[in-house]
Specification:
Length: 496
């Protein structure tokens, strides 16, 4: 049996692409390179352990629970049609005591200027599972800067359920665009749906992946085993599942249909191949079967410590915040509680370290919420806005989803714990809870990067007194002076 990891980055034969893994200590080169993953050639932004090995997706980063990761990002970007600065977010890691290494530009750091490097040095003491990394500067990751990050656990509680778990069992799903992100438009439609970095022309936001499997992990949190035959995966989410390879030796289609755009599988669209060892090298003949056991988020339950924080009743949190999402058709911008997120010129973390402690003193105005330490926070997020469903990601935490999209039931006993949740359609209201036990300025945002770019985010400044006394490395202090001195051509993202 195989333990397979799948993640969707809004961003071929399955298991035939062996990822050149790096980590836990490595150089991480960011370069421009022309690639044609769906047959259309375009310049892109890629990462590699060396400049020559830069690829899409980027190199798989691996390590073990308890490792200290030291990833030296070397920025060698030169193409002015795309952003030439960069910043890397290590998606799903809590970054306890190292909030400065979280990576979102203008929140925890200034971007890394072209021709310079920055060492992300962080520990992973108590997390294992499926994570990923991507650019967190504007919409740069839509140009290709993303990849998988897997942390193994010597004491994996699910270890007896599978035989194989390595880089060959990582599956990535991604949207792909033919135009540079900086000039692609407000919310462009992807041209292709890529599976493990390969696809064919035409596509849309990829989501369902159909195959009989047992889910054992969601967003880096072990779950009680749940058998399903299809997954609805939103941007930024990850799952690990056990696939029992007990069928006759042969070739089998894996189908990944998009939410919008070109659906179906004609001509090999939205398909990958699961090919058994010794099977002939030819296309499968398997037919599509209707899903009878789709994944429902409300059926996912944590394997350990399942209860949501706070009292198991409505109003059982210390801090309750309602986040009302709207869209202004006159400005074509999103708002949360009437405020539009604009990246501040001084990172939120630097503002706090320089003395700002209260929400009214922090920029962007109306977008920063200060949270006291060691309290239970309950967030209610409205659904149904244009562009729904919005997959919201919270940095610095895994949260308990006490009310999922499409459900009116509140579960305080054993709700799924994750870091990306769909807000749903129509009149949906999603409710999540977390404890403020990790100081840092943590951004909550829609993980459709085009939506983040037009305002769909807020920042939670958690325990500002502790943030003020944090000590980032000296190189962190040099990021802003270098970035602020860049000319328009050095910044990139120009129409050419």
């Amino acid at each position: 049996m195989l333990r397979s990891t799948v993640f969707f980055a809004l961003l071929a034969s399955l298991f035939s692409n062996t990822y050149a893994a790096i980590g836990p200590q490595a150089d991480f080169h960011v370069v421009n390179k022309v690639i044609a993953p769906d047959g259309f050639s375009r310049s892109s932004v890629l990462a590699g352990g060396t400049p020559a090995s830069a690829s899409f997706p980027g190199p798989l980063i691996t390590g073990w629970k308890g490792n200290n990761f030291k990833l030296n990002v070397v920025n060698a970007l030169t193409d002015v049609s795309m952003l030439k600065a960069t910043s890397i977010h290590w998606h799903g890691f809590f970054m306890a005591k190292t909030a400065w290494a979280d990576g979102p530009a203008h929140i925890t750091q200034c971007p890394i200027s072209p021709g310079h490097s920055f060492l992300y040095d962080f520990k992973v003491p108590d997390q294992a599972g499926t994570f990923w990394y991507h650019s967190h500067l504007s919409t740069q990751y839509c140009d290709g800067l993303r990849g998988a990050f897997v942390v193994y656990d010597l004491l994996d509680p699910h270890r007896s359920k599978y035989d194989i778990d390595n880089e060959d069992t990582v599956i990535t799903l991604a949207d792909w665009y033919h135009h540079p992100a900086a000039t692609a438009g407000i919310v462009p439609t992807p041209e292709s749906n890529l599976i493990n970095g390969k696809g064919r022309y035409a596509g849309g936001p990829a989501t369902p992946l159909a195959v009989i499997k047992t889910i054992i992990e969601a967003d880096g949190v072990n779950t009680q085993p749940l058998e399903v035959d299809s997954l609805q995966i939103y941007a930024g989410q990850r799952y690990s599942f056990v696939l029992k390879a007990d069928q006759p030796i042969g070739n089998y289609w894996i189908r990944s249909n998009p939410n919008i755009g070109t659906t179906g599988f004609e001509g090999g669209l939205n398909l990958a191949i699961l090919r058994y060892l010794l099977a002939p090298n030819r296309d499968p003949t398997t037919t599509e079967k209707p899903s009878v056991k789709p994944l429902l988020e409300t059926n996912l339950h944590p394997l350990k410590n399942p209860a949501a924080p706070g009292r198991p009743v409505a109003g059982g949190a210390d801090v309750a915040i309602n986040l009302h999402v709207t869209f202004d058709f006159s400005t074509l911008l999103f708002m949360i509680n009437g405020a539009i997120f604009h990246p501040p010129t001084v990172p939120v973390m630097l503002q706090i370290m320089s003395g700002a402690q209260n929400a009214q003193d922090l920029l962007p105005a109306g977008n920063v919420y200060t949270l006291p330490p060691n309290k239970v926070v309950e967030l209610t997020i409205s659904g149904g806005t244009i562009g729904s469903p919005h997959p919201f990601h919270l940095h610095g935490h895994a949260f308990s989803v006490v009310r999922s999209a499409g459900s009116s039931v509140y579960n305080y006993v054993n709700p799924v714990q994750r870091d990306v949740v769909s807000t749903g359609f129509g009149s949906d209201n999603v409710t999540i809870r977390f404890k403020t036990d990790n100081a840092g300025p943590w951004i909550l945002h829609c993980h459709i990067d085009w939506h983040l770019e037009i305002g769909l985010a807020v920042v939670f400044a958690e325990d500002t007194a502790t943030i003020k006394n944090m000590s980032p490395p000296p190189a962190w202090n040099q990021l802003c002076p270098l970035y602020d001195a860049l000319t328009p051509e050095e910044l990139g993202g120009l129409e050419v």
